[in-house]
Amino acid sequence: MRTISYFPLGVRPKRALLAAFVMLRLTMHCDAAVQCTVINSPNCGSNHHRQTHKLPTNVGSTYYADGFHGGTMYAKFQSSTAVNGNSRYHDLTYNFNLGSYDGTYWVRLPTAIGGGTECYAVYKNCDVTVDFWDMTEPVPSSYQLT
Q1: What is the DSSP string of 55-90?
Q2: Which residues are bridge partners to 74 per DSSP?
Q3: pTM value > 0.85
Q4: pLDDT tens profile 87-140
Q5: Is residue 27 part of a domain?
Q6: What is the total count of domains within the chain?
């Protein structure tokens, strides 16, 4: 009887399956590499309703919003990185993921300067970075979905 192998010579099926499983798990935990687009318009989201959602305040934490277009969206506090070795000012990065929704939403986040907000176009899965946040102030605890 002849044995037919679907693997190239020298490749062990168990190791190939293990490697494929590890790669799959790694890709499931990859973070977005795409930055959300800054919207420089005073009308950002003004034609739509605004909903305030909680924003995680601990790095690595994720808050979910159920019922978003029949699914779930989430905001994750991705990182807090010291600016040029300065422990007082940090760049705060958040990941927004709209789940299965294929459209675009606008998100308003507080800015580090002057108590204002900045508007971002969130599409599918992207990151927002709030630059130069003064760490003597509490990190933002909410955002507006518009």
Answers
A1: ---STT-EEEEEEETTEEEEEEEEEEEEETTEEEEE
A2: 64, 97
A3: no
A4: 899 999 999 998 888 888 889 999 988 888 999 999 889 999 999 999 999 999
A5: no
A6: 1
Q: Tell me the residue range of the domain where 128 lies.
A: 37-145
Q: Of 76, 45, 53, which Cα lies nearest the Cα of 141?
A: 53
Burial 24-53 (b: 16+ CB within 10 A, else e): eeeeeeeebeeebeebeeeebbeeeeeeeb
Q: What is the mean pLDDT of residues 1-28?
A: 48
Query: Is 9 a member of any domain?
Result: no
Contact present, 94 and 55 (Cβ < 8 Å): yes
Tokens 């590890």, residue located: 22
Closest CA relative to residue 131, chosen from 86, 59, 83: 83
Q: How many residues does the chain have?
A: 146
